[in-house]
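Suppose you are handed a protein chain with no further information: no name, no annotation, nothing but its sequence. What can you learn? This example shows the usual starting point.
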Amino acid sequence: MVGLGCTIDGHLNDSKYSQPIPWIGLYIAAASAACAIAMAADAFIGFRHRKLWFPCKYFSLNATTLTLIAVAAKLSVDLNASMPRRQDQLAKLSSATLICTVMGNFLPSIGTMENKEILMNIMALGILVITAIVNICTQLGTGVIFVFWKEHAFVMFLMLVLLAILSSSALTVPITKRYLDLKYNKKHELAMEECSDKTGKCIAEKLRRDLAKFWMMAHTCNPQFVIGRSATCTASGAFCLLAAMTLAEAVLRSYLMPWSFKFCNGDSDYKWSTTLVLITQIVAVVVGTIAPAFRWFIAIHFRCPTKATKACKSQFRVESYWSQWLVEGKECPLGLRFGGRNCKRLAHKAKTLLLDLCIRVQSGIVLASKVVRLISIFSMSLFLIFSRYCKEMKTSLKLKNSIANNDSGSESQTGLKLDLRRFVLHLEGEEALVDLMIENHCDASDPWFFAGKKKQPKPLIQLLEKSKSLRELKGVSEFDSYQVPSLEAEEPPNCWSLPVVTLTSIAISLPGIENHLVKQLIRSVNEGLVYVRIVENNLNDKPEFSNVRTAAEVLWLRVDLYHRWLDVDLRKMAGQGKSPEKVLEELADIAKNKFWELKPKDIQGCLRENPSKWPLKVLIANSMYRISQTILSDFKARDYDSSERLFERLCAMIAEILGACLTNLPRVIPMECQRSAIEKREESVRRAILLLGKAETILKILDQELLLSSDPEQLACIDNWRSSRKQKNPLQFGFPSTVSCTAAFSSSDIHLSIE
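A reasonable first move is to predict its three-dimensional structure. Written in structure tokens, the prediction is:
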């Protein structure tokens, strides 16, 4: 290939080396844009959810974001590319400033990491920052960067400060997590005791008040919020703002005062891509400064002297949790397995001296951060006092309007009537912030509740409303008669979902049923199974239930999507024109044959040992056999005159089983708040509040006396429920004698509104 490798005179031909560089610039711009989009997404979520401490969801400290930053900051570490023009030199500065910006955005995310993960990520970030600083200093010395040297020096200083702040904050994460987790467990026990008090009129309203307590605990101990309200996070916001202002000063001065700079002629190796990189990184810096700047402003707003004078009295005291991890490290042995006694003593002394130095450095960083916060407070005090005065005026006007319209605003003020001070979890030195956190977050759970109310399961609610036997819930007893002979010596345990899915399969197979009624039933059961799964995940999560629950999930997938029970086409069966009795007999025979067909292959031993371990298809066939035989016996005893009446009875039975399962919701909803780690606890409480909003009407439909008086252990499992009912009324588990329901669906339901 002529022209590549060596020239004619033997010298290396490097004429094409710089041709791909503009495309590398495009790659840098793409990485910068990805950082900007991720930071913008976090800012948007913070504004949308009114979390002005801006938790990190999309842009947190991890391997992916570190790689993106390394690509985006390539211009600042490029040692030998010529950068003669104004936009070239500004792009160098913008790359360095972007590093400061992303470090300020990263800070809260370290609260969600494990100790080893924090260590590795901080070390990786430190290597990146030190590399960038060394390369920038090299370029200042070689002349690659020949303007904006003061701005570069200041930005490098901010890089080091932000790295020190990140490291300082990381040292507190293990201690604050452990401390707040202990406090949460104690407060959670107190809240659960108050939840167990069944006095009151409305279950939904009582649960809403209880969840407000759980939300306040989960929110105030959220590791990201704990870091977001710390002194170091406030200081990092101020430094990020300074970095952005430095870049803005350089850009404005270079364009408005061009005579003060002397740029060179010529073109950069990056050519047209440098301008694109500059614009993209300026946008990224502006967008990325939003979150740190708001954290800084909100923190000093909380600490404003006119609002929280007590908060300023301990400004220059370093709380114990800042250095507790280092103090504990001093007391831990090194565990050296080599060297003699003198060597080990020397190593332990060196470790103690090193940790003492780290403790002093840590205290210095914290004190410096508090000084920055105090300076920020007094520099912004006039503005903060004015804004507080305006807010008080606005509040007083709202108060007058609320007095005039007292009834209309009563529902939305639920959170304000509660004393949530006991449930605010705070660290040492944050006592003055308790009232401020309540003031700003006391009603923050209400939007989630009302969002849930807008997504209530209307088809399920209509199914429950049309069944008048919900007070007695006879369907739990009647779907499976003890008079039906078992196919094996032992029966597998039942879960809530498998009988519902099997009954729905039978209802779909009945002849002469209009399609819109079948579709409405499927939609209702689909919505009901969402809540059944939540109940089972909390109350039926033992190993013996896992196989049965999986069988119900597998079966429902085929019934919902294809109208098939195993390999039987249910709608095709319904269209064959057979009588309901013949359909039931055919389903029972198919299920029985399936059961025995699968038995000799691979499950003979399992059948004898533990029915809960039967293969899924065997569990499905056994359920269909028993339920279809029970319905067939019921059909003969009642002498149903049409498929419609049997369909109505099946729908009522499904509604009764779902209603019995959903009586567990008052117990399950608070349990959703405790089944997660401290990092995910706030999200769990949010889901529980949404669940309550969706289920509010369901709780009102279910009998109030049943919700309050039933034994929780009896309600939890369908088999326990049936055993209890059998003791009270043994005849009910034979052939039921009365029909206590109305049509679960009718022709008037054609225009059912589905959300």
